[in-house]
Structure formats: structure tokens, C-alpha cells
């Protein structure tokens, strides 16, 4: 971070600037970083290049670093542009840091500044200049890159133990806004019906003390027909809430304006928002549709609609739902809502070529059955269109890893691997998921 500040300082001294169409922001890992950037007097140069401090921690990675100019958004969408982001974070999934950046690259803080000045990722820093000085002379990255010794000198002078002690001694106090919050007393949380952030979850509604009877999955329809490398961010995005999404409509109905929507990550305590946000990533590719986006087909009438609205229509007719996917379903960062969301939509099983390890476990934890195509078999090789009715033949006595039969109304039957990998997986499924299992264990 100090290196980035020094590079920015050198860039400003050389007369370099960042173009107005380049979105820039700075969200340090902690207040200590702000402290030593200020003390080393590099913060002004960062600000001059547009890297103002907008927050802390995971802001950029979760899509909370702010919007971009609507004229730019319109240009991207109207011309179907593949636009890029460069961040010194740890999440670069498509559309993660902003819905309109498809290609995101991870880089050091110094390189983030450099690419912002260059205004493009299509540059060879060795041969092409970042820009020109006021006198017209080219400025290359090597001309403004601080040496290791320069960085170490500043670090020794300005990154001192007293900074950490001072910042972290106040960490439990929080800001004045935090201190002004009214905290409820009592052992039970007083749910507020008017809150759009924290809502009593429905996971235990209708739960009985005894184990529920095993229910056959018959006549299931495919909610989405997906390909390879569907990430947890495709399944349950954490970033901004699209203005035309089901979640946006819900929040608007509750009196909120678009400026108040915030992000899915910030509203993860409200199941009504998160269910509507499931499969709401604008870059998700559903084979039922002609282009990427959070849409699917209501198969009985072939109507195109938002995924949540389609699931609600199926729910009204008590139709069980499944997902068909390719390889590495659920890859990316672990996210509980990537399993909770599909559960709330009525998804009973996911049939995929392979699963990311943790996500498979999370599906089991929500009572969703992970099923895997046999080796060398896929939806394509089996001739599946996804528009069939599916019946999953679950035996009364299931065993980890056993083969089970799936039949369709199109006359295509095939076997899959039951990806309950342990006896504990089976135990959780019989209880309807790990949450129900734990409650029954507590009250037993």
C-alpha cells in the first residue's frame, strides 16, 4: 500500500492523471493503513488520482465500492462491451466488483494505480508509456516505480507500533453512528416486521419434533439448465441489487429508493431479499435463454421470466424443482446463501458433472440432494434438453455414493451417483438439513 502511495506521488509529480471514465476507489484493510498513508504524506497524491477512501475491508471484493456513471453503463450495455477491472483484492469473478465488469484481474496495489493511469489493460508496460509529461515526453511505468529501498525507508519512518495500538485500542467503540444505535435488551431478539435488513427466517416454519417422512421427488421441473464453472457468486451474488430485479421490486414496495437498496451482501439477514437474489447474477448463462442474465423459462407455458418469479409459479402448483449443471458447480468462495437461496426457491436436487467440495456439503446441509452424472456422461451425451419432467428414485435405505435411477417423461432414463459422501450427510438429509438436525438435537 505504501508502494502504491509512492507510485501515485511520483505519477502526480510527472503530470500524469486518470481519465474520468475510469472508476477508482480505495478501501484499505484497516484504519491503520489510512493512518500510515496520511503520515507518509502520500494520501493526497492518491486522492488526486481519484483513489479516495470509500470504506474498509471487503468493500471492493463484495461490490460495494460504488457505481459508475450511467452514461458509461449505457454504453457498455448498448454495445455489449467486455469491460475490465483491476483490483488488489481476492475475488475476481465475472461481475463481482461491479455488474458491468465482466473481466476482472487481480494485481498488486501498485499495478492497480498503473492500470488506472494507463486507462486500459491492453498495454505492455515495458514498451508503451503510461502517458506524457506536460512537455510531451513519454512516462513509462519504470520511471515512476518506487524502489524497494524507498518503500522500506518510508515504512521504517511511518509504520510504527504506536499506530496499531492507537487504532485497535478504539476498535470496540466504533464510530459515533455505531454508538448511537439503540441495542435491544433481553435474551430473545425482538424481530421487527418493518426491517428490510433483518427478518425472521422461515427455515423452521412447520418443523416437527419427529423426523419428516421421506417424500418422493416426482414430476420435477428444471429451474435452470447451466454449464460449467457456475460459481457461488452466480448462484447468490453479493454485490449491488439491480434496479429491475425482483429484490429491487420488493425493497421498493417497502418504501426504499434505489439509493437505499445497498447490496445483497448487506441484506443477507433478510431471506425475502436473498431468495429474490438467488440466481440474480446478470452474467449467469442459462441454456434455456438466448443470452446471459437472471432469466429462465416457466416450462409449462414456455414464458420467460425472472428466476424468482418462475420458482414462485412452480411453488404455487407444488412442483418440485431441480438444477442441471456441468463441471465444478458451486466453485468460488464458500457462501451459505448459495445453498439457502435455492432451498427457498424450492430446489430439491442438483444434478451436475461435478461439485466444488464445500458447496456440495452446504447443499446437503440445506437438505438439497447433490447428484452427479456417471463418468463420461453429461446432460448433452444423454440427450437431455432440460425441458423434461424428472422423477428421482430414492431408495428407502440410502447409502453414501450409491447409484440411483432418474426417469423422465421423455423416455430417457439414466443413473447418477448419490453424492451423500458420508453417513453424517445422510443423517442431515433425513432431518431436512443441518439446521433442523441441530434444533431437534437441542430439544430432544
TrEMBL record:
User: Where is the Aconitase/3-isopropylmalate dehydratase large subunit alpha/beta/alpha domain positioned along the sequence?
Assistant: 2-119
List the molecular function annotations (GO) for this entry.
iron-sulfur cluster binding; lyase activity; metal ion binding
**InterPro entries of this UniProt entry?**
AcnA_IRP_Swivel, Acnase/IPM_dHydase_lsu_aba_1/3, Acoase/IPM_deHydtase_lsu_aba, Aconitase/3IPM_dehydase_swvl, Aconitase/IRP2, Aconitase_4Fe-4S_BS, Aconitase_4Fe-4S_dom, AconitaseA/IPMdHydase_ssu_swvl
**Which cofactor(s) are needed, names only?**
[4Fe-4S] cluster
For this UniProt record, the keywords arranged alphabetically read as follows: Iron, Iron-sulfur, Lyase, Metal-binding
Which Pfam families does the record cross-reference, listed alphabetically? Aconitase, Aconitase_C
- Where does the Aconitase A/isopropylmalate dehydratase small subunit swivel domain start and stop, copy by copy? 248-374
Q: Does the keyword Iron-sulfur apply?
A: yes
Superkingdom, according to UniProt?
Eukaryota
Q: Which PROSITE patterns match?
A: ACONITASE_2 (PS01244)
Which PANTHER family does the record match to this protein?
ACONITASE/IRON-RESPONSIVE ELEMENT FAMILY MEMBER (PTHR11670)
Q: Which family does it belong to?
A: Belongs to the aconitase/IPM isomerase family.
Q: What is this protein called?
A: Iron-responsive element-binding protein 1
Please spell out the taxonomic lineage of the organism that makes this protein: Eukaryota, Metazoa, Ecdysozoa, Arthropoda, Hexapoda
Amino acid at each position: 500500500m505504501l508502494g502504491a502511495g509512492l507510485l501515485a506521488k511520483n505519477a502526480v509529480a510527472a503530470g500524469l492523471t486518470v481519465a474520468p471514465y475510469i472508476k477508482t476507489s480505495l478501501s484499505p484493510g484497516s484504519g491503520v493503513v489510512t493512518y500510515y498513508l496520511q503520515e507518509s504524506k502520500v494520501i493526497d497524491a492518491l486522492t488526486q488520482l481519484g483513489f479516495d477512501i470509500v470504506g474498509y475491508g471487503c468493500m471492493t471484493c463484495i461490490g460495494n465500492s460504488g457505481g459508475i456513471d450511467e452514461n458509461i453503463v449505457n454504453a457498455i450495455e448498448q454495445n455489449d462491451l467486455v469491460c475490465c477491472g483491476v483490483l488488489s483484492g481476492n475475488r475476481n469473478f465475472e461481475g463481482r466488483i461491479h455488474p458491468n465488469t465482466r473481466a476482472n484481474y487481480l494485481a498488486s496495489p501498485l499495478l492497480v494505480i498503473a492500470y488506472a493511469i494507463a486507462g486500459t489493460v491492453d498495454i505492455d508496460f515495458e514498451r508503451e508509456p503510461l502517458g506524457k509529461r506536460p512537455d510531451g515526453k513519454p512516462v513509462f511505468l519504470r520511471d515512476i516505480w518506487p524502489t524497494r529501498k524507498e518503500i522500506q525507508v518510508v515504512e521504517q519512518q511511518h509504520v510504527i507500533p504506536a499506530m496499531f495500538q492507537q487504532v485497535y485500542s478504539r476498535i470496540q467503540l466504533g464510530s459515533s453512528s455505531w454508538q448511537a444505535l439503540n441495542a435491544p435488551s433481553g435474551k430473545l431478539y425482538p424481530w421487527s416486521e418493518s426491517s428490510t435488513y433483518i427478518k425472521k427466517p422461515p427455515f423452521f416454519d412447520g418443523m416437527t419434533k419427529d423426523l419428516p417422512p421421506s417424500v418422493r421427488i416426482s414430476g420435477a421441473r428444471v429451474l435452470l439448465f447451466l454449464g460449467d464453472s457456475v460459481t457461488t457468486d452466480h448462484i447468490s451474488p453479493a454485490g449491488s441489487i439491480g434496479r429491475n430485479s425482483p429484490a429491487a421490486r420488493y425493497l421498493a414496495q417497502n418504501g426504499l429508493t434505489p439509493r437505499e437498496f445497498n447490496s445483497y451482501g448487506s441484506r443477507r439477514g433478510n431471506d425475502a431479499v436473498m431468495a429474490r437474489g438467488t440466481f440474480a447474477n446478470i452474467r449467469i448463462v442459462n441454456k434455456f435463454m438466448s443470452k446471459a442474465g437472471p432469466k429462465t423459462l416457466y416450462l409449462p407455458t414456455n414464458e420467460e421470466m425472472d428466476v424468482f418469479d418462475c420458482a414462485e409459479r412452480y411453488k404455487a402448483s407444488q412442483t418440485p424443482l431441480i438444477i442441471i449443471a456441468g463441471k465444478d458447480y458451486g466453485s468460488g468462495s464458500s457462501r451459505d446463501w448459495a445453498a439457502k437461496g435455492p432451498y427457498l426457491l424450492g430446489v430439491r436436487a442438483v444434478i451436475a458433472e461435478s461439485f466444488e467440495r464445500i458447496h456440495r456439503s452446504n447443499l446437503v446441509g440445506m437438505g438439497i440432494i447433490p447428484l452427479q452424472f456417471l463418468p463420461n456422461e453429461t446432460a448433452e451425451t444423454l440427450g437431455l434438453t432440460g425441458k423434461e419432467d424428472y422423477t428421482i428414485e430414492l431408495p428407502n435405505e440410502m447409502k453414501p455414493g450409491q447409484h440411483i435411477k432418474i426417469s423422465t417423461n421423455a423416455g430417457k432414463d439414466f443413473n447418477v451417483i448419490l453424492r451423500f459422501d458420508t453417513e453424517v450427510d445422510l443423517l442431515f438429509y433425513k432431518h431436512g438439513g443441518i439446521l433442523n438436525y441441530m434444533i431437534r438435537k437441542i430439544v430432544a
